[in-house]
Every structure is written in structure tokens, then in C-alpha cells.
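Design a sequence for this backbone.
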């Protein structure tokens, strides 16, 4: 009877040790993932500059409130992201990137306005937000 009990205890300890080794392998894999995949992205995030956009530089469209914009820097260009609208602009300088973004926002406004009756769920949410923060003068 002791032999069966000892064998059972040995099997249980072996299962625990195997789980421990599997967990150790998973932790090692996560560490490798963090080092290879996430750290470079964190570096990219650190090169992100938040700003507020107060104007679309349009004679017709006026922002009622500023838009949160992030300037990100690539090797050859600057990218201006507006995550709230899921839209971006780019250029060689910050000014060019912001002007391209302004043009994209203007174009998006008119495109969504023209098609507002047939918009899908996501586009409708963007239109609702745009129509709330932009006024036509």
C-alpha cells in the first residue's frame, strides 16, 4: 500500500514540476516577446508629441473645440495622427503634416456629410463626433 501511495505522490510531484517548467518556459517566452516586440514600440511612443489643433485653416469649417493630435517622427517624415477620428496626415515637417491632416479632416467631414444617411456604425460615430465639434460658417 505504501508503494502505491509513494508512486501516487511521486506522480503528483512530477506533474507540479512539469507545470513549473511549462510556466518557466511561458515566462521566458513572454520576456523574449517584450524585448523583441514591445520595447521598440515603446521607443516609438516616446517619440510622440501631443498637441492640440485649434483650426482647420478653412474659411468654411471651424472647430468648436480643439482636437487632440499626436506628432510622430519617422526617419523621413512627420506623421500627425488624430486618433479620435482615426485619420492622419504626413509631411517632411510638422507644419506639412498638420496641413495634410487638416485637409484630410476637411475631406472626411464633407464625405461623411454627403453620405450621412447610409453610413455604417463606425462611420456614423465619426460623423456624430465631427458634426459636434465642427461648424460651418
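Sequence:
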Amino acid at each position: 500500500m505504501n508503494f502505491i501511495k509513494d508512486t501516487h505522490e511521486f506522480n503528483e510531484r512530477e506533474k507540479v514540476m512539469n507545470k513549473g517548467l511549462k510556466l518557466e518556459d511561458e515566462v521566458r517566452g513572454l520576456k523574449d516577446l517584450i524585448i523583441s516586440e514591445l520595447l521598440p514600440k515603446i521607443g516609438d511612443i516616446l517619440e510622440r508629441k501631443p498637441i492640440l489643433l485649434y483650426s482647420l485653416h478653412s474659411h468654411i469649417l471651424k472647430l468648436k473645440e480643439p482636437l487632440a493630435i499626436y506628432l510622430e517622427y519617422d526617419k523621413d517624415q512627420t506623421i500627425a495622427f488624430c486618433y479620435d477620428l482615426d485619420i492622419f496626415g504626413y509631411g517632411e515637417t510638422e507644419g506639412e503634416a498638420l496641413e495634410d491632416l487638416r485637409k484630410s479632416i476637411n475631406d472626411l467631414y464633407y464625405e461623411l456629410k454627403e453620405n450621412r444617411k447610409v453610413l455604417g456604425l463606425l462611420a456614423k460615430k465619426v460623423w456624430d463626433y465631427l458634426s459636434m465639434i465642427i461648424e460651418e460658417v
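The longest strand covers residues 67-73.
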